[in-house]
């Protein structure tokens, strides 16, 4: 498989067939918490795409040039989570100082991202899959896009759900979870496409 | 009124159950609750991390400066998670494969960080230990409960022992949609039972809305950070 095709395969599977939220159950908390409001969906997805791409690039570099050569790979979890926390703080400060409009759009979502499991998950999975630098970055960005897609799709579903009248004990979160089940069922339709499309 | 030791422990199991009432750590509950064995392993792993980090954080609560407390908590938690990862990988390779990425993701599991922030950083060692144990038991109870139903309906087995004959399984229960649906049903059941007793379901008992670091990104947190968001929300109403 050529390099371009491999990148396309990574992108396609991260957005559709192996969508973090709807297929792999990663980052369910922000998915349920933020999807009530369309504007916060957009802001959150933007911040997640941004931080995930950056975090993939930084952690890949640290792993391959620091941890691996010095035999410190057992520190992976600790180092990665600290790098992500520091990175998020750093990005927040830089955006606040130099790129005001972007800070206005993403700023409030940045502190929420440190403990977003999707960010830690993508960095660890990059290493597990032994991707190279470019592949890691693409993986990070497209996993973020997949997260955003799920969030925005589900926001629409929730809007329709507000007008529905479920049984009393299903009101609120339970019916939202059942709706999430139906949304994730639609993504099962993509299963198998990636393998046949790129071979 | 000061709580007795037993009340602290039992609080995490029922009254403030971390999964069904506080709505924390949903990811691993949904993903791992496919088999009872995996669910039990995950529950024990999380309980260990929770108890360990609660003890250490409670011991260090007077030393950790307030401004950098979250990174400090994360380091302590990540240390215990690494410990668990190594032990499970060395001695229980099957479980390690079953849990996959979710073992490492205990680091960002909101239950652990949430208890560090809400309980261990304010209370003594013994109380924190009991709180961790109670919360861990509450988590294990829910994840194993959901796993029993999912494994029975999805695979027709319990602990790998066949109970329902082959060919009568509902495959989708073991996949992603089944996870969401079973979690929704479990929550609906809880609300129904509470309603029968005349109690109200209040899913945000344990969150005072000042959890700026929680990934839940619930409206409490967002409106707390930006007053403008609150204003536009009120205007919309």
Protein model, in words:
- The complex is a heterodimer of chains A (199) and B (237).
- Chain A has helices at residues 3-17, 28-34, 38-67, 76-98, 100-106, 117-128, 133-161, 173-188, 193-197.
- Chain A is mainly α and 199 residues long.
- Chain A has one domain.
- In chain A, helix 1 runs parallel beside helix 7 (133-161), helix 3 (38-67) packs across helix 4 (76-98) and helix 3 packs parallel to helix 6.
- With 237 residues, chain B is an all-alpha fold.
- Chain B has 2 domains: 5-196, no CATH class; 209-237, no CATH class.
- Chain B is 65% helix and 2% strand.
- Chain B is built from 11 helices and 2 strands; from the N terminus they run ααααααααββααα.
- In chain B, strands 1-2 form a two-stranded antiparallel ribbon.
- In chain B, helix 3 packs across helix 4 (69-91), helix 4 (69-91) packs across helix 5 and helix 10 (219-225) packs across helix 11.
- The radius of gyration of chain B is 19 Å and the shape is globular.
- Residues 205-213 and 219-230 of chain B have low confidence and may be disordered.
- Chains A and B meet through helix 2, helix 4, helix 6 and helix 8 of A and helix 2, helix 4, helix 9 and helix 10 of B.
Work out the radius of gyration of chain B: 19 Å
**Number of structurally distinct domains of chain A:** 1
Which ranges of chain B are low-confidence, i.e. pLDDT below 50, for 5 or more consecutive residues?
A: 205-213, 219-230
* N-to-C span of chain A: 8 Å
Class from helix and strand fractions of chain B: mainly alpha
Write down the overall geometry of chain B.
globular
Query: Largest sheet of chain A, if any?
Result: none
Order of helices and strands of chain B: HHHHHHHHEEHHH
Largest sheet of chain B: 2 strands, antiparallel
Key descriptive features of the protein:
heterodimer, A: 199 residues, mainly alpha, 72% helix, B: mainly alpha, 2 domains, two-stranded antiparallel ribbon, globular
